[in-house]
């Protein structure tokens, strides 16, 4: 990804200056502390000016509806303070002039409006797109005093320039570079961005080998032909500088399409990593619980000896004395003599009853522990399926389907919520319809809504994967094998050299009460080994 530069801003202003000059600012929104949307209207046409001052994605453009969806913009119910300030001074005002200070990455809107007592005042909204120093500043043009900033800059952050309400506004320090239009010397292509204004590092690399005259034509915006490389690694105002490019209709479209692509990717990866982190934590907790439960079950299994002790004591009541500290008896189950420690305050029969109580308590505890361990194993399998779904997710919508399952709430943890499932992938094979689920929600939709008694259900054995449903009766063996291969290809074991795939009729599936999404038990299954 390359950053937004001064030359791109210059081209954007040249392309949109006629629309912006005299336009009215109608609606101002601030979805996040670094995103702004200005509703601008002129001659019956409405556009949304999107401004991003994130150090990684700083840019501005008129945003279309498709790219607005890609950016996953959500307007908060309570607008931030700076947004309220902008609304107070700018809503329904007129943009009188649009300007870019020479060679700077700053867009200035000079605005005519009125103050609280009805006096006409002139304000300037400076949109600074300068990497980590990106900011939006509103100041009074007449007094040069700042009214507010998107974020304040104190002396501890910048020695050169402080930005905050009531301070005077000043431009950033000038860079010590040459003006290409006045320069007539030689060119060092490795240091173009350091030597000349309006040439960024990325643009300088694209201009390698170009003549001085070509560079002058570029910075004066002659013969613009904006394009984006097919792998989205570069954008350029001149398609001739890019190989394998996608031509763009306008400079604005180039900016909008390029940066929305990376914002969508960033939001997708951020959410995916967040959900994966939740999965890992819960999987680790579940495994630890299973291990602890196994140790408790093992301890309770030792309670079998208490039954034996009680039986041996009862068998020797006639031969032993009450109120003894211990007795020696013959263990007829293991064919040896053993010594049993007793409670001296109890009779032999009382000690036997004590051991029987310990045995019954252990037996009951073991049953409960076995049930709890079984539930934990179901949760473990469910989390493994969630993890597989996360790894298989290809876009933000896939993650949105998975997200409700990971809500940390006892009522919804792993259970079905009211969110509507996106229909599973549908494939036509040999005249039959096959459905493949991408996540637990779609898997659950397959078995609860789509499956009929005679349909065949496929799933990889002992590993997370998609549910595959073959609709119809009497399929050929070849078709069954193809569906089994589909189940393998859509599983966490898709790269294994050999894997078993089980299949059975849908009528033999059962979804246990209160079980996790997509979890089923089955019987009368057959297995195919996919090699």
CATH class of the largest domain: Mainly Beta
Radius of gyration: 36 Å
Number of domains: 4
Structural class: alpha+beta
Give the integer mean of the pLDDT values: 89
Strand content: 15-25%
Name the CATH superfamily classification of the largest domain.
ibrinogen binding protein from staphylococcus aureus domain
- Kindly report the spatial arrangement of strands forming the biggest sheet: 4-3-2-1-5-6-7-8-9
Strands, count = 22
CATH topology description of the largest domain: ibrinogen binding protein from staphylococcus aureus fold
Count of DSSP H/I helices: 12
Low-confidence stretches: 409-418
Task: Please state the oligomeric state of the protein chains shown.
Answer: single chain
- Range of helix content: 25-40%
Corresponding CATH architecture of the largest domain: Roll
Outline? elongated
Sheet with most strands: 9 strands, antiparallel
Gap from first CA to last CA: 41 Å
In short:
By secondary structure, the chain is α+β, with helices and mostly antiparallel strands. Helix content is 35%, strand content 22%.
How would you sum up this structure, described in words?
The protein is an alpha+beta fold. The protein folds into four domains: 6-174, ibrinogen binding protein from staphylococcus aureus domain (ibrinogen binding protein from staphylococcus aureus fold, Roll), CATH 2.30.310; 180-251, no CATH class; 302-387, no CATH class; 416-530, no CATH class. It has twelve helices and 22 strands. It has helices at residues 6-20, 65-70, 81-90, 192-195, 201-206, 212-219, 251-301, 304-315, 348-392, 396-402, 440-450, 477-489, and strands at residues 24-32, 35-42, 45-52, 59-62, 93-99, 106-114, 120-128, 135-140, 146-149, 227-229, 235-236, 245-247, 326-331, 336-341, 425-429, 432-436, 456-460, 468-470, 499-505, 509-510, 521-522, 526-530. A nine-stranded antiparallel beta sheet has the order 4-3-2-1-5-6-7-8-9. Strand 6 (106-114) and strand 7 (120-128) form a beta hairpin. Helix 8 runs antiparallel to helix 9. The model is unreliable at 409-418 (pLDDT under 50).
